Amino acid sequence: MRNQVKHFINGEWIESTGSETIDVVNPATEEVMGKISSGTNEDLDKAVAAAKAVLPTFSNSTREERIQWLHNIVEGYKKRKDEFIEVMTDELGAPLSVSEEVHYNMGLGHFSHAAEALESFSFSENRGGHTVLKETIGVSGLITLWNFPTNQTSTKIASAIAAGSPVVLKPASKTPFAAMMLAEIIDEAGVPKGAFNLVNGTGSVIGDGISSHRDIDFVSFTGSGSVGEKIMQNAAQTIKKVALELGGKSPLIVLDDANVEEAAKSAVSHMMTNTGQVCSAATRILVPTSLKVQFEEAVQKVLPSFPVGDPRKKGIATGPLVSEDQWETVQSYIEKGEKEATLLIGGTGKPEGLEKGYFAKPTVFTDVSNDMVIAQEEIFGPVTTILTYDSLDQALDIANDTIYGLAGYVIGKNPEKLRDVASKIKAGRITVNDADTDFHGPFGGYKQSGIGREWGDFGIEEYLEVKSVHGMPS
Ligand code: NAD
């Protein structure tokens, strides 16, 4: 049992002013694996005061100091690799290989790439008639959710350190322990006291408190659209800048010259990786009508190579959903899908032999039309939908007929068509033929998928204000 009921404030682990705690449940066993404190507004005020107090010196730290802190964090992070993997497998239910290859690596990548981006980042630019200066925005409040415990926290923290912005982080209460490890690593990295603070607690107290706090200048949030909306409303009271990383319902367009087996593997990988709890996952698979049957067969063939089971067992590709609530939500979408489309694989209930734990059956719907609920709403589970198209223009119309715009994918051979699709999908990140992700590339959404960008130099920009100086002496 991990009983970590303290908050990290002003360089120290301190008791909460309240006595309530929150249980953290291992989704594979349904057992309580630890407890955290349910922080109070007083705890939050202390953390914000510490961040505010260090702001003048932290925002004036040099580029070299910030790069050194980021490098130190990278070294500290690497030393605790095995522990990170174990913790994320237990709190999130990610298979050990996913905790290592996806979660551990993404968290690490953000710190090292922020250090690299900072090397050449321009904080001052002479533009002829004026000079542009980029200065720390102030104190930042960070609110994250559970599906990528180190990725989301790390990208925000790394960018904030690079920009010299002190932060108060509220990690998701379902997966707080990896974030608490980060606090220890940041402390050991020599980051000044008060520049990084972590307060655990509920969204309704600490999350709400951050978004409405008078002494917080910027809020960076990752989570659902409904909470994003509340955060904007709260932030409006103090005209606070917000960055929102919200949901998605991303299309994968399979071109008519694509290798069908490879395209099917990609589609299945999207639905199975992290148990489908990925905001940028492709969950609307658009295939030419002429390839529909062949594609369905290929999906059925490839699915067994993504076994579902105990995340601690070797060879398992997909673990449970994060919580009972999430399991119920996914079940209700599968029920809706069974009414409106054709069930190709899976269905409601738990997979055979996996009665304990929040495991869901990998589920594929076909004969889906884009106006169905399962094609419009984010399910956030191992569920995907197959839609057909007869022309590329129709495919693009379907792809863009959504309130979201986080990501888009295209698979095929013809370079002209690949370029055309990449430029016409209305989304913040497009991936062609399963290309590797470059950590320097911006991440964020169009439309209701969010506001702002994270990762690399674009991520650093979020934590800065822009000033123009006219008549600056040279
Ligand atoms: P959620 O919005 O309920 O929770 C996210 C965080 O917000 C948690 O820390 C929670 O405690 C906090 N919170 C809850 N109520 C709050 C309030 N009133 N004020 C401030 N903070 C509050 O998230 P969820 O529904 O569990 O997560 C799923 C959603 O997150 C999906 O829509 C998914 O697509 C999205 N997501 C987006 C990205 C991205 O980068 N775009 C990444 C991952 C997940």
TrEMBL record:
A Pfam family the protein falls into: Aldedh
Coiled-coil ranges (or none): none
Oxidoreductase among keywords: yes
Record Gene3D superfamilies: Aldehyde Dehydrogenase, Chain A, domain 1, Aldehyde Dehydrogenase, Chain A, domain 2
InterPro entries (alphabetical): Ald_DH/histidinol_DH, Ald_DH_C, Ald_DH_CS_GLU, Ald_DH_N, Aldehyde_DH_dom
Domain Aldehyde dehydrogenase span(s) in chain numbering: 13-469
Active-site residue numbers: 245
Taxonomic superkingdom: Bacteria
Protein name: Aldehyde dehydrogenase family protein
Protein species of origin: Salipaludibacillus neizhouensis
